[in-house]
Amino acid sequence: LDVSAEAAGLAEPRSKVLYTVYDNLEEGKFTRQGLADLVWALSSCKTRKERSSLPGMNLKRVDLIVTGALILEGIMDYLQLDSMTVSPFALREGIIFDTLTKTIEGFEPTPCIRRDSVMHLATRFDTENRLRSAEHSARLAKQLLGSLRKGPKPPRALEILDERHEFLLEAAILLHSVGIFVNHAKHHKHAYYIIKNSDVLLGFTPMEVEILALLALYHRKKYPSPKKTMMSGLPKEVQDRVMLMTAILRVCVALDRRNTAAAVESIQVLQDEEGETCVLVACPGVDCDGAINDISFELWAVRQELPFLKKILKRAFSVVEGDVHPGEAKDSYVSS
Prior knowledge:
- This protein is mainly alpha-helical and 336 residues long.
- 49% of the residues lie in helices and 10% in strands.
- The protein is built from 13 helices and six strands.
- Helix 13 (296-313) links the parallel strand 5 (277-284) and strand 6 (316-321).
- The model is unreliable at 21-25 and 326-336 (pLDDT under 50).
């Protein structure tokens, strides 16, 4: 037996600590050596306070985590397991799914638990109908990335953004305004807390939840930096991705600054042959009366975000208003 899976519960808090203290975990999997390293780190803490300060530590498990880690280490040694995958589900979910499958003919679990859980959280805290605007910004983000990649010399920075991280970008855009449910003031900080402490984001690894929370935190006000406390403990590749995704997120949120989900219909990026200069073309939409939307405020908001985008992509950027394309179909931003 080379690999085993463990339901969420005692394994999950340990996994969260592993994800933030060590950078050798992917997709919820940890190795026997990784667990041994964690046991050493936990046993090196002489006090409860020291254990509580470990990154990702669940305070409800701080008293039992050492015992649980030792038991899990013994199980892996006895069964000679090389690695173990932590399921985002607990045993109770398995019982529910099993019961529904047996009692409801044709029942199948949701095909995309990750996306459904994001929409559930976004809808739950959508007190001002901001979700519609967020979905529009997510569509614009897909257009922006697609247009940048189609250029003669796509920015090399985009190479670290694969399909999985593009989905995280979409999810972060959908969730970036959930903090308004608490208060408009500092709602980016409230969004960070809500996402980090949510129990409905199923199918996401602890590191992915951390990325979502950081993107929501940095969608306004201060920009992320590897030197900041919230970022300094993350692996370098994660820091780079957060910086890149933040730059894209802020531009696309600015493109719907008034939360109309209609002012800017579509966008594209024009690039020179050398790939050194980029022009972001924002095409306004048309209202129900046939009048062209005024996007001057959106253009102003985008210009405030371009210096950071320039810094990350190492390209000179400007933004202009483009032609109107009435009736143009919107691209849907659907990931799995």
